[in-house]
Amino acid sequence: MHYVKITFLLCVLFACTKSEEVKNILVFGHAGMGLSMDNSIYHDNSKEAVSLALNLPTSNGVEVDVRLAADGTLWLYHDEWLEAETNGEGCVSDLSDQDLSKINYRTLKNEKLVKLVDVLSFLREDQQLFVDLKHVNSCLNERVDFERLKEAFEEQLQGYENQVKIICSYEYWLNELAAEYEVLYSTDDVEEGKKMIQKHPAINGLVIRNAVIHAQDVQWIKQQNQTVYLYDIRSLKGIRQAYAKCPTGVLTDDLRNALEERGYAL
Amino acid sequence: MKIPSLAGFFLHLFPEFSATLYVIHRLIFCCFILCQHWLCSAQNQVVSGVWRIGLAQEVQKFNQFSSARLQFEKNKNLFAVNLGFSPQKASQQIFAPSFTIDYARLWEIHRVFIGPVVMFSVDSHVFGTRFLYLHSSIGYRFAFGAKWQLFQESTVGPTKETFTYLAQKNQQFTWNYHIKLGLQYALR
To answer: Which of A18, A55, A57 sits opposite B127 (nearest CB)?
Structure first.
């Protein structure tokens, strides 16, 4: 009976100890405080959401979706069409800064569209910003001009180069972007991602959907000295499943729970 | 009038919890006003209220709470105090207590009690800093049974979240929902 009690106490003790590996996982807010999340308070990619995500205790940073506007300015917006979420019409790539500054999201708080430069100052020195590059202009059904995009990065990310990681899903831009910034390839296909890592050694790793990758694949990628970040993590169950795979980091839609589940970072 | 004075005394003793205690102080005072017609009734009148104890589970936008409940009913009026904690936060090794006060006006139709409810609550937890949530909401209450009573409450209203981290005060307002389900037992 005595041994049963001791075993029970040991089980309780170890069940409550968060592993050091989990505490080393980096936690980032996906599009600020999450995409279409009930408890995010603010609309994704808004100034308010990014500010809150960066102000939460132990937050490692935030991921934002970036589009190039007609004036060569980088704006935060996730969807392809403005009418999907805002009172505007058309595509970000076709509108000027003046037009975009008048647009707001169709929410109770009416958050405005925001430029990338306006959220950079929220970053603390120990935090990182993932820039998810949206490279297609859906209105014209073509890719944005890469040279203009590089110029925009050079000009608007000045001073924050070491804190920014670019997420790109277009293979042919990877190497050129990797010469200037840390670049991650975004894919939903694990095998394709593995091939990209071997084909483009200049990139720094993968951003991949949590549901499609197994722990063994995460370990394989880390063994290649590459980083792996998981996204589409929306529930506490999903957060626990993602942490069990021990990725480099997670881009989560439920930032509060992800931070608390990890505990205090080392 | 002793309860508000006692809260004021604690405010003086523990200034670091002043925000939480200030809210509790206010809530107790509001409840005192709401219930004063019971408390200050004529001395020769027979008190015929019903006390109930129970357990409740609440789901809301940011969290879930399990709580113990003490309720008093008289003349269609219901007043209840809930003291609970978040099992979800407990599973993350964080203690998140909550304190809720409900007031409802109920009508009985064949052992079914239904009516509007007003709820004020405060919950808090510490993760890197102290997070404080203040809720006020309005909705309906539905209860079934006499000695053993099953009840359900759904309310909506504003929530204020506050926390200060690295000397920066953060304060957000949002609409919130509260869905509560519970079971209670009549003491007399």
So the answer is: A57
Strands B77-85 and B64-74 turn out to be antiparallel
B87 touches chain A (CB under 8 A): no
Nearest to A100 by CA among A110, A87, A113, A109: A113
CATH code for position A144? 3.20.20.190
Hey, of A41, A42, A254, which one would you mutate to test binding to chain B, going by the most B CBs within 10 A of its CB? A41
DSSP B110: T
Mutate to test the interface with A, among B64, B92, B168, B171 (most CBs of A within 10 A): B92
pLDDT reading at B157 higher than 50: yes
Count of the separate structural domains present in chain A: 1
Segments making up each domain of chain B, as ranges: 1-40, 48-186
Complex confidence, ipTM: 0.86
Q: Quick one: pLDDT at residue A266?
A: 53
Q: With H, G, I as helix, E, B as strand and everything else as coil, classify residue A6.
A: helix
- CA atoms of B145 and B137, how far apart (whole Å): 25
Q: Considering CB atoms only, which of B89, B166, B172 is closest to A52? A: B172
Write out the DSSP string of A202-240.
Answer: TS-EEEEEGGG--HHHHHHHHHTT-EEEEEEE-SHHHHH
C-alpha to C-alpha distance for B155 and B161, rounded to whole angstroms:
18
Evaluated on CA atoms A93, A94, A96, A99, the torsion sign reads: negative
Asked if B3 and B24 count as a contact pair (C-beta separation under 8 A), the reply is: no
Instruction: Write down the CATH number for the domain with range B48-186.
Output: 2.40.160.20
Q: Within a 13 Å sphere around the CA of A246, how many CA atoms are in the beta-carbon half?
A: 14
Q: Helices H, strands E: what count in chain A?
A: 11, 12
pLDDT digits over A119-178, tens only?
Answer: 999 999 999 999 999 999 888 889 999 999 999 999 999 999 999 999 999 999 999 999
The pTM of this model reads 0.84
* Contact indicator for A34, A256 with CB cutoff of 8 Å: no
Contact A260 B166 (CB under 8 A): no
> Is A44 within a domain?
yes
Evaluate whether residue A155 is within a structural domain: yes
B163: closest chain A residue by CA: A56
Q: Which member of A18, A55, A257 has the closest CB to residue B170? A: A55
Task: Pick from B133, B172, B176, B177 the residue to mutate for testing the A interface (most A CBs within 10 Å).
Answer: B172
